[in-house]
Amino acid sequence: MTGVPLSAYLVLALVLFCIGLYGALTKRNAVIVLISIELMLNAANINLVAFSKFGVTPSITGQVFSLFTITIAAAEAAVGLAILMSLYRNRKTVNVDEMDIMKH
Amino acid sequence: MNVYLLSLLVFSPLLGILMISLMPKKEERTIKQFGFFGTLPPLILSFFLCSQYYSGVALSAFSIKVDWIRFGNLEMYDPKLFAVNYELGLDGLSLSFILLTTIVSSLAAMASIYIKQGWKGYYLLFLILEIGMLGVFTAENLILFFIFFEMTLVPAFFLIGRWGFLEREKASYYFLIYNGIGSAVLLVAILILFARTGTTNIAALTQMMTMGGVSLFAPISSSMKYGLCLAFLIAFAIKLPVFPFHSWMVRVHAEAHPSIVMVHAGVLLKIGAYGIIRFAMGIFPEQYESLALALVLMGVISFLYGAWLAMVQTDFKLVLAYSSISHMGIVMMGLGALNEAGLQGAVFQVISHGLIAALLFFLVGALYERTGSTMLPNLGGLARSMPVFSGFLLACGLASLGLPGMSGFISEFMVFLGLFKGQPLLAAIAVIGLIFTAIYILRAVMLMTFGKNDSLEEKEKRDIEGWELVPALVLLGLIIAIGVYPNLLGGPIQSTIEAVMLALGGR
Amino acid sequence: MMENAWLIPIFPLVTFLVLLLSGGRLRERGAYIGIIFTLASFVLSVLALVERLTAPTYKTTMDWLSIGGTQLTAGFEINQLNALMLVIVSFVSLLVQIYSLGYMKGEERFSTFYAYLGFFTFAMLGLVMAPNLVQLYFFWELVGVGSFLLIGFYFYRQEAKDAAKKAFIMTRIGDVGLLIGIILLFWETGSFEYEEIFQAVQAGVIPDGSITLIAILIFIGAVGKSGQFPLHTWLPDAMEGPTPVSALIHAATMVAAGVYLVATMFPLFLASDAAMQVVAVTGGFTAIFAASIATVQKDIKRVLAYSTISQLGFMMLALGTAGYVAGVFHLMTHAFFKALLFLAAGSVIHAIHTQDIERMGGLWGRLKWTGPLFLAGTLAISGFPLLSGFFSKDEILMAAWANGNYFLFSLAVITSFLTAFYMFRLFFMIFAGESRIQAEQVKESPAIMLLPMLVLGILAVVGGYIQTPWFGTFLGEWLVEGNEAVLGSGHSEGPVWIMLLAVLIALAGIFLAYMIYAKTKLPREWLVKKDSTLYRILENKFYIDEIYYFTIVQLIKGIGLFLSYVERFIIGGLVTTVTGSIEGLGKIGSKLQSGQVQQYGMIAFLGLAVLLVIFALTGGYLR
């Protein structure tokens, strides 16, 4: 069977991860930063699934883990957006640059 | 019984700690008594050890080794690898240091009667300090050594910072900063050794480095060994201390309470010399040998520099502080001489200075109690109002300047004997220091005791008496005993010195 | 008896300990303890000497300190020289202690004084019994401490305090030289024992240069102890101690230790011509130097002090010109007559309570015993014919002549003249002429003080007859017995005119002093004007003290001050720099703490990248 080779999955994941990393480190809008973080998590998920099929000992573990990650990522996004909302309410901004003080 | 004896010795001050911690804060008298009694178990045990040694029991019989911490999973190669065991052991050298520790601690605990407040905390910290000191001299591996080493730093920091004179807090920060840097360097060196060899056992390391034993890992290059040797030397040179690392010690001597300084000058500084002999010299003999000239140079500079500065001080405590630097310079010169006479002289000097400094600071404490001042211009004529005190002060001063019949002479004589063989030119420069020593000691002692004007107020005129005679007599007795019959101390340390010399090339 | 000789120094030590521990409670009774114990050591010393006259040298040792494979030993030895020294030391000490019973009467710290005397005697006896150099050095320093305690006995007096300190430090300078010499000798010969050292020296295993160096270093020790130029300045100042102490320290014991040291190490010195030359020249120069100062001093004890320095110079001169017997012989006679002179001077001071000889005079009739005894001592030291000093001085002149060093010989002759002159100047100024003191106040000293003086007086007169050109040279032959090859013969032969010259010189000196100070036929300024430069130089002892003060002392103080600035600013600055830079680092660190999460993330990412690169390059291990 001539399927898609492992390296293709990994390259896709790498590209996604780099985009995510770039976004998380450079974008000023907090919503974009959160989205970028989601991108990185999903890059990791692709890797997990890819290795669960093409790894040294293929098993279901990788897929199970990616399910966990998706769930947790959803929770994390919810919490993150909630914090963002309250920040916005208090500071009237979603700009990451301006969120450099812990206390109010 | 035998194998637990050392652990019992090291941790026996815990008994005192337990008793004191159960007591109410206000019970000054009881706390002081128990504080003193708390130092007795180690004293008795160390005497017992000593008697065992003289009755012919091999000191190795007291070694104890218990598995403790293990890193990694390398049992299949060698169960010794990456294991930090709880191992205590003893040889002639550490036995003499332990005796020094227990004796000086007990006497210092006695002298701590002069402490005016916070007795409970004081004695708790004091006894913890004693555990640390005893542990340092018995630890058989570097990690354990380091733990006990740090255990001396923390109580000492608080003891200096809380119960001293006016600038005590500054002094204790100096103490902390310098010793902190020293410990950091020491820790790095220990960890590198551990990572590279898989063991911290001193005997195993010595074997590995000197005999070229097999290591599982890549061999350590010689420049790495230089670096490690240097790291040990720096760490312990700060502790000793020698020029230019000395300024913390001057402050500590001047600002800490005299009974703390008794322990500090008497024992804590000696860890530096002990460490150099054990680690720098023992583990890296080849590298040590090529660094020896620098050590001698540092020793000579400290010896002369300390003596010179001691000549111009106006505070008796500062005279003693600089004199300690000067005397530690002698230790360094002996260690750098690279022969038996020098090394043995250095060990003698360490022990002898421990006793002499303890006695001198005890006298300072007794004096301060009466006069409230140790400034030389304020003092004078004490020979009339306090003849016994003055006698002790003079005797101790003479011991400090190396009068024959006292321990100081034996050590200075041997160090110079060794140094004239090893580095004749530097030795010839250094002997001038002997004259300076005489000058500053006599200047200080005579300013205090001679002269017409009596500095004491009428109500303060009481000589040292009663219990105060005990520390003075015990210490002076030991100083004279070693001075008159040096083989008393020479015997036990002989085997250790021979072993170290053998690794150095047996010269 | 000789195997029990170790008891000799122990007795005075026991005195010291007993009196010290009794803490002054014994008061005057302490003196009797001291005297009894010293008597015991004197008796033992005499017994040992008598036995040594016939028996061979006795030596015993035990292990004392092991350094690696080398064993240092401690023990004692009784040979000719130290048997003689034991008797001299214990005898003079005994007499001084008896004398002090009278002299120190009423002193508050009576038993302390005897304790110190005991300690000093112990150290000195230990010194002369030492069979090796380490032990010698051991007691050598203890002698220094003993003298320190005794000189500083009146601790509340500023002068006594300074004198004691000076004595200790000046002799310490010499001691350091001795210490280096001993150590170098050990590395050359591998031993501290006299015998082995001398064997090595004779076997010629030591290079010539080293022998000279070592011998000179050892001689520096002797220079310090024996008050030779340039380390002599402590000795006159040491007169601040009680007068009996001066008699003990400056006549028979401590200052003689230097001469004893050179005599003991004589084979070593003989092996180096240069070292012998140094000894002889130093001795000769010191002799005339100190004698010239003594001619103008006004303090009775200071005159005697400079006289002591001068006489010690004589002994060194003798030893340096290979006159072993002459040096030791003069050491012995000097011990008797100088002790006598000091005790007599003490008696004078005791009677009139001043030490200034310009305020004395006309005491001859008042002090019926002290006067003649003082005269006997003065005659003996001046080399008046048939008294002890005459024979020993004659022996020295012979030795110098026989050695062929005519310059030193003439120095010695001039010094003899000066000696006779200043001693009789002293004598006449005290005893002749008008009385300047109210008669009622002058009282002769008690019998307890006169008795020791009488004994010493007899010895000062007859002590020389054990070594004369006419009745045999018993002492000399006994001293060199079994060692003639090294030490030379027991007697130096020389032309007869030397003896005549010595007599004439002595008489000339006495006559001149008589004319100036007794008859006052010649004005006092006949020789030197009082306001002339020469007089001022002599009166101020060649300004040696001042020179030392303004050069060495100031230099040391200056450097000390300089170093304390170094300590404060450079070392202190170093510490401030370290703490400052750590603080600065912290400040930079807190600036990095910007709150910009993205920045943190970037740094973390870069750090990871660097770590990965290192890992890729090294494989994870530092080499």
UniProtKB/TrEMBL annotation, chain A:
Q: How does it sit in the membrane?
A: Multi-pass membrane protein
> Out of the domains of life, which is the source?
Bacteria
Which E.C. number(s) belong to this protein? 7.1.1.-
One GO molecular function term of this record is: NADH dehydrogenase (quinone) (non-electrogenic) activity
Question: Can you list the GO cellular component terms from the UniProt entry?
Answer: NADH dehydrogenase complex; plasma membrane
| Keywords tagged on the record | Cell membrane, Membrane, NAD, Quinone, Translocase, Transmembrane, Transmembrane helix, Transport
Q: Which residues cross the membrane?
A: 6-25, 32-52, 64-88
The catalysed reaction is:
a quinone + NADH + 5 H(+)(in) = a quinol + NAD(+) + 4 H(+)(out)
Q: Which GO terms describe its biological process?
A: ATP synthesis coupled electron transport
Q: Say yes or no: keyword Coiled coil present.
A: no
Query: Which Pfam families does UniProt cross-reference here?
Result: Oxidored_q2
Task: Write out the annotated subcellular location.
Answer: Cell membrane; Membrane
Q: Which family does it belong to?
A: Belongs to the complex I subunit 4L family.
Quote the NCBIfam families the UniProt record gives.
Answer: PRK05715.1-2, PRK05715.1-3, PRK05715.1-4, PRK05715.1-5
Q: Which PANTHER family match?
A: NADH-UBIQUINONE OXIDOREDUCTASE CHAIN 4L, NADH-UBIQUINONE OXIDOREDUCTASE SUBUNIT ND4L
Whom does it interact with, and what assembly results? NDH-1 is composed of 14 different subunits. Subunits NuoA, H, J, K, L, M, N constitute the membrane sector of the complex.
Summary of the function given for this chain in its UniProt record: NDH-1 shuttles electrons from NADH, via FMN and iron-sulfur (Fe-S) centers, to quinones in the respiratory chain. The immediate electron acceptor for the enzyme in this species is believed to be a menaquinone. Couples the redox reaction to proton translocation (for every two electrons transferred, four hydrogen ions are translocated across the cytoplasmic membrane), and thus conserves the redox energy in a proton gradient.
Protein name, per record: NADH-quinone oxidoreductase subunit K
